[in-house]
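Incident review: delayed structure delivery

Summary: a single-chain prediction request sat in the queue longer than the usual turnaround. Root cause was a stuck worker, restarted by the on-call engineer. No data loss occurred. The affected request and its eventual output are reproduced below so the record is complete for anyone auditing the incident later.

Affected input:
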Amino acid sequence: MLALKIHQNLIECGTDEAGRGCLAGPVTAAAVILPDDFTHSFLTDSKQLSEKKRMKLKPIIEAQAICYGVSHVMMDEIDQINILNASILGMHRAIDQLSTRPEFIAIDGNRFKPYQKVRYECIVKGDGKYLHIAAASILAKTARDLYMEVLHEQYPMYNWKQNKGYPTKEHRAAIRKYGPSPYHRKSFKLLPDQLRLEI
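Output delivered after worker restart:
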């Protein structure tokens, strides 16, 4: 069972992102504040759960959270400011959406930039340690997956419904065959043998 949060006496949000390593689509971040009595038997890091379990958890988290926010940072911004900065920007935007101001922010990973003057801590593999970060990882992952399924309808040749934009062999073969779409990240190495991408 994961711990609820780091500081029991503070209003604390967990935040995480999904899609950082993808070749196409946004990086998506979420922030969640859970009530102090929140428990769940199988809520953990989204990467450890099946898609079916993640989709089952999504409405539970949304219904029981005190508040939550989800933000997409699109490809053009990723290309302009790089994926690390885009991930942090997404987390900031997700926190902006919270109807309750957090007194402390718990971040999955090891990099963050100060959000206003709120205290924070980065926790490596935090989505496997704290419920609010795990909840954020679920909301970020499910929101991004659903977004990629919509994009799949426009560009079915890349099979984003299945690979969600990650660099699978099939995805890279489709890029080689059809070229990049408007939703591919121009700053990313789309093909292994590619030295640079003409922008």
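Verification: The radius of gyration is 17 Å.
Action items: add queue-age alerting; document worker restart procedure.
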